[in-house]
Amino acid sequence: MLTPDEIRSVPLFASLSDAGIDRLVRTSADIRLNAGEYAVHEGGERALYAVLSGKVEVVKRFDGVERTLGWRLPGTIFGEVPLAFATPFPGGYRAAEPSRVMRVEPHHYFAIASLAPEVAEKVGALARERIGGLQGIAMQPPKAQITVYGERWDPACSELRRFLSRNQIVHDWLSPETPDLTRSWTGSIPQAVECPVVRLADGSRLEKPPLRELAVHLGLQTRPTQEVYDTLIVGGGPAGLAAAVYGASEGLRTLVIEREAPGGQAGTSSRIENYLGFPNGVSGDELASRALQQARRLGAEILVMRGVESMNPATREVVLDGGERVRARSVILATGVSWRRLVIDGFERLIGKGIYYGAARSEAASTHGQDVYLIGAGNSAGQAALHFANHARQVTLLVRGYSLEKSMSRYLIEQIAGKANIAARLGCEVQAAHGEAHLEAIDIVDRKAGGVTRHECGGLFVFIGADADTGWLPPEVQRDKSGYVLTGDEVLKSGRWSHTREPFLLESSLPGVFACGDVRLSPIKRVAAAVGEGSMAIAFVHQYLARDGVEAAR
């Protein structure tokens, strides 16, 4: 428990009256931290802290990289910026050694400040000073972790840049058209046959690097550290990351295997505006980044650029691409779905050269001043259209049907209607794509008016629905004709359930294997639903481990 002398040792409180000190003694939290423990994380709720002993490190992530901004020693305070500006904590505060801090809740701080206005004046002055320092740091350009050289229309370069963006790797991209190229790229300019070429921070150079090899060079985890896990989650989208957060936080040894980058299909969304708790919307990659940090902080392992080739139904041992084997006491399928491919003249030849399935936020800048087309009428297409409209001269949605209302949320339809440079052409399809080195034009069939017209096209992005990626699963895991995994009551209806108990709501026809998110047979396909199912899956994993007598690893 805090004592009056300890509180008076903090200069901010030294001049308080006995009544003020007594209030702090009675209401302030006495927090003892081991090295590495946080007093408060970045984004935490506002409060005032004072360091009584030890040393506290101030850390903040900039473009995915953690930086140390300073230190707080005995007698100093932190939390002045959130209190003065009514914001969450702009950085995290972590004990660098065994430390002790006191925490004053906001309403108690304001009560003290009303009794001693000089306290509020000192806190306000310190907040203004600190916010100025944060602004100075934020104005510093982020240091690129790597530099990529390649041509704009090279599919391998596009794939590499997409991989870096999805994994929040800050990078510079140079091309033959880059002004002052010789100044930006040290050494000889790569030849076209060598591209894409990557230059790492240590100066080493990689030509056409496999993405998994590049991931290792960048410090991303690509291999499991253990042979057995309590739960193995296949897929790192919203459902998989939610399962990872809840699994790790509840003491389960948790492994996530992601074939590309955390975030899944939702990670490519430019703006999700109907997700609870984000009144101004949140981009898919920001949501994924926060969930990834949270899962890792709680102890989950996240592998990237790894796929699963098969699973043994008897032992739940999975074989990763490359031949590594990992055994799990339970498996959660959160693989999501893959975009359906179009069979159209010229498409395959121009994939990655102006035609893309889905769209990452990073691709919007390359459409600046261009006329671009999007195929699809779902929420993903609507979100992408709004984002591209900030760069492209004209954005056109090509829709096979005759209405957006059947497949797109009302809020997106209303926003699209308010954008002068977005148009929706209903009853239309792409018949062919044209171009030599890259996409130049497309032929559009208007099924209502009749006839085919050719249009110049600076980019074509396809959002036509998706299919479940479950071909690697054993036949013991029952799926429908489109590959979606049956769970719960659907398993019972199929007659494929042989266990003595009934299956859990998210359990597949193979006991101990669960499915959540888009890969599960369900009419609801929303990010919030996927997150909810991911957290529910962990609750069922606990019940499965308890009822079926499988002990969790210690």
| Strand line-up across the major sheet | 16-15-14-20-31
Helix-residue proportion: 25-40%
DSSP E strands, number: 31
Low-confidence stretches: none
> What class do helices, strands and sheet pairing give?
alpha/beta
Mean pLDDT: 89
Number of distinct helices: 15
Please indicate the percent range of residues in DSSP E strands (runs of 2 or more).
15-25%
* Gyration radius over CA: 27 Å
| Distance separating the two termini | 34 Å
Please state the overall shape, judged from the principal axes of the Cα atoms: globular
| Sheet of most strands | 5 strands, parallel
Task: Kindly summarize this structure in a few lines.
The protein is an alpha/beta fold and 554 residues long. The chain contains 15 helices and 31 strands.
Folded structure, characterized:
- Strands 16-15-14-20-31 form a five-stranded parallel sheet, with helices on one face.
- The chain is α/β, with parallel strands linked by helices.
- It starts with a helix and ends in a 7-residue tail after the last helix.
- The chain is globular and about 85 Å long.
- 41% of the residues are buried.
- It is 27% helix and 24% strand.
- α9 (238-249) runs parallel beside α10.
Write the layout of secondary structure elements.
Blueprint: H1 4-8, H2 18-27, E1 29-33, E2 38-40, E3 48-53, E4 56-62, E5 65-72, E6 77-78, H3 80-85, E7 92-95, E8 99-104, H4 106-115, H5 117-138, E9 146-149, H6 155-166, E10 171-174, H7 181-184, E11 197-200, E12 205-207, H8 211-217, E13 228-229, E14 231-234, H9 238-249, E15 254-257, H10 284-297, E16 301-303, E17 308-311, E18 317-320, E19 325-328, E20 331-333, E21 337-339, H11 347-350, E22 355-357, E23 371-375, H12 379-388, E24 394-399, H13 410-417, E25 422-426, E26 428-434, E27 441-446, E28 452-456, E29 459-462, E30 466-468, H14 489-494, E31 513-515, H15 527-547
Parallel strand pairs: 9-10, 13-19, 14-15, 14-20, 15-16, 20-31, 22-29, 23-24, 23-29, 24-25
Antiparallel strand pairs: 1-8, 2-7, 3-6, 3-8, 4-5, 4-7, 9-11, 11-12, 17-18, 18-19, 21-30, 26-27, 27-28
